[in-house]
Amino acid sequence: MKAYQRFGKTLGQLLFQLIPVAVGVYIGILAGNWNDARHAKATQNQFLKTLCLELDENRKLLEGAAEYHEILGQRIDSIREIASEDDMNLSVLGSGSFGSFIEGWRGIMIPSLERSIYDTGILANALVGLDFATINRISKVYNLQESYRTFAAPILERLLNMDLNTTRKEALLILSFITTDLNQMEFSLIQSYEQLMEYLKNH
To answer: What is the largest CA-CA distance in the chain?
Structure first.
């Protein structure tokens, strides 16, 4: 009986010593998890803030290009209305440059849009923890941006491959892809940038 009492007393003392240790370990785990979650949230917030800066920079670049391409389209339409067939069949390079027959020519002006912050965020798992709607919105905008780049690439290649045999008529046809379809994509992408930035700032 005495041995049983001694065992019970020893067990009670042992449990009395173990309980604070167990509670301490549990609190330590909770604190570690809370600290990790806080760090992840801070990283996520910084990523979204920096992403907005990238989106805004791309928007500014695209706004200038879109406005220029819209005006360029109007001037190309004017040339087609008044230019003679002989003028349109002249070599586009033989006269020196586009500027010699397109008023206000300032180059092709298809901007190279950044996505480095977005790509870094993916590699750093900064998107993990965001809700599906937010991830979906961000992905859609960058997919649209990639579609813009993909659509513009062959147009740029055709313009760079022009030679003395390329007529003004052919050159204007190539440029018309920039002033119509690509220009529509530019305005659509600008709107998408603005909507996403507004969403992220209020999220």
So the answer is: 121
Cα atoms in the 13 Å half-sphere on the side-chain side of 175: 28
Please say whether the beta carbons of 180 and 186 come within 8 A: no
Give the CA count within 13 Å in the CB-facing half-sphere of 202.
6
The DSSP call for residue 104 is T
pTM, entire model? 0.79
156-183 pLDDT per residue, tens: 999 999 988 999 999 999 999 999 999 9
If you average pLDDT over residues 7-21, what whole number do you get? 58
109 sits in the region (left: phi over 0; alpha: psi -120 to 50; else beta) called: left
Whole-number pLDDT of residue 43: 75
Amino acid letter at 157?
A: E
Retrieve residue 57's tokens: 């920079």
- Are residues 196 and 141 in contact, defined by beta-carbon separation less than 8 angstroms? yes
Name residue 191's amino acid.
Answer: Q
